[in-house]
Structures are given as structure tokens and as C-alpha cells.
């Protein structure tokens, strides 16, 4: 016959001490979940604020000569946005929302392909580009702005119907698709307007559902916290 083996109890551990530890750990986890559920909107708004702030810091760093952190920001956000210079805002120069020929007139080499163009971050004459394109900056900026407004109306705002939400997306879809296929060229105003509409509409749709879900989480966790511990034999 083989001898069965069982895991050894930790030295000094007793059922009472294990139970106290489990209760303490459960209490900490419970408080953490409730805290996140109660402050989810502040966490979301803070995250979106940081997401927008860093691309705006990139041209500021370039202007100050801090090229290493600026290049790091451009590099990270290049995975999140195309960063084409003629679709981006420029700071600290003569160009604010430049066209391609204006960029070439102020120092960007002519005839570059799109992958080479997106690596152009600017110069002292043109200024330095924000690390998010105009449309993306409008989208995430409106998400932050709508999130701040939602803080004033949370609990009272109901989400739009899916049909209305899709209708609010049409302007950005038309603007983006017609530009992509060369039917027309958009500009900074339309990119910003349609992107901002998309971001605000998405918050309007999603945040009321998140608010309801977080209230359910709080109710469940508070019941669990207030319920008596199970009987220990």
C-alpha cells in the first residue's frame, strides 16, 4: 500500500488564525471593489486626461529641447494614431493646422511616402506636432469633456437608442470614408467636429450602463460585507 500524503499546515497556523487572515483579506478586497465602483468615473476621467495630456506635452518638450521624452511620447502614440502631419495640429510655429504643401514649404522633405511623413514631428519654423491627429484629439478630448459633464447628471441621464447613436456616427463615417477613397479632402474643422461628436455620443451611450453596473456591484459587495460570517464548526 502507498502512504497518502497531505499538505502540511504552516508552522504556527491555527484554524482561528487562518480564519482571521481570510476575513481580513476578504474585507480589504471588498473595500477595494466598492471604492473602485464608487469612484469609477473619476478614475476614467483621470485616465482620459492623462491620455490627452501626454500628446500635448510632446511639442512642448520639443520646444524646450527635451527631445528624448518627446520622441518617447511620439513613439508610443505612433502605435495608437497615424500621426500624419497634415492631419495634426502644430504648436509653437507658423503653422497651426497645416496642409501638405505648407509643411513642405517650411522644411518637410517633398515627395515622402505616408510612413516617412508620419515621422516628421516639425521644426522651429513649422512648429511641433501634437502626438495625436486632429480627429483622435477631438475624440478623446470630447470623451473627457463628456465624462466631466456626466458627473453632473449621473443617475439622471438615460442612454440614447442604438439608432440615434448610429445616426450620430454618420458624420465621422462619411468624412473619413470619402477622404480615404480620395473623393474629397477633409479639414481640421470637420475632423474635429465629427470626432468630437463621436466621442461625446459614445460616452452618452456607455456611461449610463457603466453607472448602473457599478451601482449593482456596490449593492452586492455591501450585502456581502454586512452579512454574518459562515458558522465555523
Give a verbal description of the structure:
The chain is mainly alpha-helical and 233 residues long. It has one domain (37-224). Helices cover 63% and strands 6% of the residues. A 3-stranded antiparallel β-sheet has the order 1-3-2. Helix 1 (15-38) runs antiparallel to helix 8 (188-226).
Query: What overall form do the CA principal axes indicate?
Result: elongated
The main pleated sheet reads as: 3 strands, antiparallel
Given the helix and strand composition, which structural class is it? mainly alpha
In spatial order, strands of the major sheet run 1-3-2
Strand residue percentage: 5-15%
**Strand element count:** 3
Number of helices: 8
- The N- to C-terminal Cα distance equals 33 Å
Rg value = 26 Å
> Regarding quaternary structure, how should these chains be classified?
single chain
SSE topology:
Elements: H1 15-38, H2 40-63, H3 67-77, E1 88-91, H4 100-105, H5 114-117, E2 122-123, E3 127-133, H6 134-153, H7 162-180, H8 188-226
Antiparallel strand pairs: 1-3, 2-3
Helix pairs in contact: 1-8, 2-3, 2-6, 6-8, 7-8
Relevant terms:
233 residues; mainly alpha; 3 strands; 63% helix; 6% strand; elongated
